Amino acid sequence: MARAPDRVERDEAASQTWPMPRSRGDRWPCSRATEIDTVTVDTFEGEVRIMSARPTPSDLATEVWRDIAKRSFAVIAHVNDEGEPRSSGVVYALIDHSLFVAVAPDSWKARALQTGDQVSVTVPVPRGGLLAMLLPIPPATISFHARVTVHRAEAMTRSSLPKELRRLLPETEGSPICMLELTPEGRFLTYGIGVSLPAMRDPAIAAGHVPTG
Question: Domain range for residue 156?
């Protein structure tokens, strides 16, 4: 088995090297004055990679949209007309930076939510790979506000929907359709996105925010 090098070059522009970390989560000082002040060797998720301890806003935005596109489950919450909090898990599909959710026309979501309403959305992102089967590793999260657009059953047909949305529908052809379109607004609030597993223990590094647009 090849021996790990004693020194690793971080990048050609910096032209500096640091001692190779000897344990998981060891960090090197960064050579340039940027928002990222450390780098981490992450070996917890089945690969060895050098990660910035805190991602840049551009990298975080890219990672957020990538994770939302890869996932399909979210929790949405809002306050009903009586001022009571409600929340539920939903399966979604992402199209053009909007989340689409198929619901039954007589469900509480279809009855309570109107076009123009605002809901909160949280997308859990599993972390840890196979390690999560052995240790209680919590998921990372992406939370945001979203503006609702309700597409009623009478305004669309199954055949008119793109295939990404047809897979959300019940198999019964005659079932009525109601689709909720959730468009993110404001900022994404993240925890554990774009950082290593050891960094998730430090809220100052693991928490982030980036504009949705």
Answer: 62-191
- Edge-first strand order for the sheet with 27-29 is 27-29, 38-42, 49-52
Q: Which helix (H) or strand (E) holds 172?
A: none
Q: How far is CA 66 from CA 47, 63, 71, 123, in A?
A: 19, 5, 9, 12
Report the predicted TM-score, pTM, of the whole model to 2 decimal places.
0.73
Mean pLDDT of 150-170: 81
CATH number at residue 187: 2.30.110.10
In-domain check, residue 69: yes
Q: Which of 51, 44, 6 is nearest to 24 (CA)?
A: 44
State how far the Cα of 16 lies from the Cα of 7, in Å rounded to an integer: 10
For 183, the token pair is 């468009």
Q: Is residue 19 part of a domain?
A: no
- Residue among 35, 19, 115, 120 at smallest CA distance from 79: 120
Beta bridge partners of 102: 179
* Average confidence (pLDDT) over 151-162: 78
Q: With 70 as the cut, is the pLDDT of residue 23 above it?
A: no
Asked if the structure places residue 44 within a domain, the reply is no
Strands (E), the chain: 7-9, 17-19, 27-29, 38-42, 49-52, 73-79, 85-95, 98-103, 118-125, 140-151, 178-191, 207-211
13 token code pair: 């522009």
